[in-house]
Amino acid sequence: MKIWIAGLALLALATPVRADDKPTIYNHAAVPANDLDKKLTAALAARFTVVDVAEGDVYAAPKVLAGSLPSAARSETGEALHGYVLVAYVVSVDGLASDPIIVESTDPRLDRFALEAMRAWRFTPGSVNGKVVPTASGQEFDFLSDVSRPRSS
């Protein structure tokens, strides 16, 4: 009997995770989906079941309450960094930017600046049919060097 129970336990552990076992998030995608939306959805699909929602009164997008986008970054030695970072993330039912995934980055040193900024972001969560749900989102970060930034007089 003990061997049979142990065998069932091992079988349960060996069973692959099905797509419907992943948490569900909702995505209000452009129709047809643009390249950016395809990249973000693909990145999130590894961790989540992404359900597209249609245009109309059914979906209410999250609304930004707090946070900002950094545009400048410096390395630990003070060097001005410039480049681009694309992050896919989920707006949780609590209104937080959660589960960030770096989709593209021209300089990995910039990733931490993007992720740090996201910690302060707050949203009114999205909803589907009036029910608050986690939603897929993405953000592009453009970091400009001091040289490329216009100077104010």
Q: Going across the major beta sheet, what is the strand order?
A: 3-10-11
Q: Per the principal axes of the C-alpha atoms, what is the gross shape?
A: elongated
Structural class: alpha+beta
**Spatial extent as radius of gyration:** 20 Å
Largest sheet: 3 strands, antiparallel
Contiguous runs where pLDDT drops below 50 for at least 5 residues: 1-17, 148-153
Number of helices: 3
In short:
This protein is an alpha+beta fold and 153 residues long. It has helices spanning 2-14, 35-45, 111-119, and strands at 24-27, 49-52, 59-60, 63-66, 73-74, 80-81, 83-91, 97-105, 122-124, 127-128, 131-132, 135-143. Mean pLDDT is 84; it is low at 1-17 and 148-153.
Structural summary, described in words:
- The protein is about 20% helix and about 35% strand.
- A three-stranded antiparallel sheet has the order 3-10-11, with no helix packed on it. Strands 8-7-12 form a three-stranded antiparallel sheet, with helices on both faces.
- It is of the alpha+beta class and about 150 residues long.
- The longest helix has 13 residues, at about 1-15.
- The termini are far apart.
